[in-house]
């Protein structure tokens, strides 16, 4: 192990220096004040603080009678943080928050092993990419790596900024990837906004990834389905699959592939701007709540939707939205199809209650007109 500075062994005044340190010990002042006083007497370059601390405490133990072997003072072995009892190191890491432990584990293998004894759990992890940056957020702490004005990459870690002549994706992933691949990692909500098909993102997530809720928005539905497939089915309760243009670009095969994923089949809540076909509604029978777009390209039988939803045992609420406010999707037409009473005059909202057959439950429909859209909210009332 590293020994105290060689100047203590080789200088002709080493005995004088030892005596000065011993006098500071006998003066019973706080160690840092003792070091400042020592520097005033012999100069700041004579001994650095770690070496002074080392000798100060050795003399202090000798003064208390705790050392009786002179070799322990003449040729001591310096202590490091790894000489701390494991139980004490565990206690110290226990008092750190998840983000602090995450970066502590990257410093040393032994520290990594101790940190990994605390199952890592984040409330929120957010990851986003574009053509110039990779950004991530761990709980309330933000990080980023992106191109700066000079063509190099700027890595921002907490309060520090590091400039590197490297690919910003590669450098950013050196910090983000170990976080996402920590053993036993659990996340309450994961947000993935991936707008770049860079190869460094091919293995972004380990499989299975343990998250209760996920929001996925990517450059195409194939990538979104790939990211969704990494989630642990059954553990994943909520899915937000609202890609910006998924309603326009997703093929019928893509939509059916989404419905056939175990993640969709075992979720409780799903939100997407995939267009909903009436024939697919039966696949939603296990969901407690869902939000989807209605396919405005086809006529919609709202009574059939009502009758089908009324049979869903787990159903609590849903929102169905048309983004094209044309005949068949305007508020009054929907209300008439449901058999609702429509008051005279201008309307902003129509509310209708439907008694569920062979049940004491009701379905409450709230139909609203928005700019270029019609929104239908359905809630089960017990």
From TrEMBL:
Q: GO terms for biological process?
A: innate immune response
The Mos1 transposase HTH domain, residue ranges: 20-60
Q: Locate the coiled-coil region(s) and give their ranges.
A: none
InterPro entries the record matches: DUF38/FTH_CAE_spp, FB224, Mos1_HTH
Q: Which Pfam family, any one, appears in the UniProt record?
A: HTH_48
Q: Enumerate the spans annotated as DUF38 domain.
A: 208-322
Put simply, this protein is called F-box domain-containing protein
């Amino acid at each position: 192990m590293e020994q105290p500075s060689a100047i203590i062994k080789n200088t002709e005044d080493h005995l004088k220096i030892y005596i000065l340190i011993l006098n500071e010990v006998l003066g019973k002042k706080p160690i840092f004040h003792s070091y400042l006083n020592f520097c005033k007497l012999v100069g700041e370059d004579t001994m650095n603080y770690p070496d002074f601390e080392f000798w100060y405490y050795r003399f202090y133990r000798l003064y208390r009678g705790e050392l009786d072997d002179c070799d322990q003072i003449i040729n001591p072995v310096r202590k490091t943080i790894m000489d701390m009892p494991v139980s004490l190191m565990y206690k110290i890491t226990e008092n750190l928050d998840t983000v602090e432990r995450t970066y502590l584990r990257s410093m040393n293998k032994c520290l990594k092993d101790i940190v990994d004894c605390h199952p890592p759990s984040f409330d929120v992890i957010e990851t986003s990419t574009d053509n110039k940056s990779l950004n991530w957020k761990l709980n309330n702490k933000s990080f980023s790596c992106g191109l700066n004005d000079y063509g190099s990459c700027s890595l921002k870690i907490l309060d520090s900024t590091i400039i590197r002549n490297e690919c910003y994706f590669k450098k950013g992933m050196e910090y983000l990837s170990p976080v996402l691949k920590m053993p036993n990692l659990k996340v309450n909500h994961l947000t993935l906004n991936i707008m770049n098909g860079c190869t460094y993102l091919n293995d972004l997530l380990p499989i299975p990834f343990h998250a209760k809720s996920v929001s996925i928005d990517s450059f195409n539905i194939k990538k979104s389905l790939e990211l969704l497939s990494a989630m642990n089915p059954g553990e994943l309760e909520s899915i937000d699959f609202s890609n910006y243009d998924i309603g326009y670009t997703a093929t019928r095969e893509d939509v059916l592939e989404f419905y056939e994923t175990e993640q969709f089949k075992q979720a409780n809540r799903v939100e997407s701007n995939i267009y909903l076909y009436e024939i697919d509604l039966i696949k939603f029978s296990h969901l407690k709540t869902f939000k989807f777009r209605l396919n405005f390209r086809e006529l919609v039988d709202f009574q059939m939707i009502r009758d089908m939803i009324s049979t869903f045992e787990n159903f609590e609420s849903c929102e169905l939205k048309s983004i094209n406010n044309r005949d068949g999707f305007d508020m009054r037409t929907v209300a008439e199809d449901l058999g609702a009473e429509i008051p005279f005059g201008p309307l902003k909202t129509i509310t209708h209650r439907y008694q569920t057959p062979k049940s004491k439950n009701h379905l409450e429909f709230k139909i609203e007109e928005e700019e270029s859209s019609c929104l239908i909210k359905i809630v089960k009332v017990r």
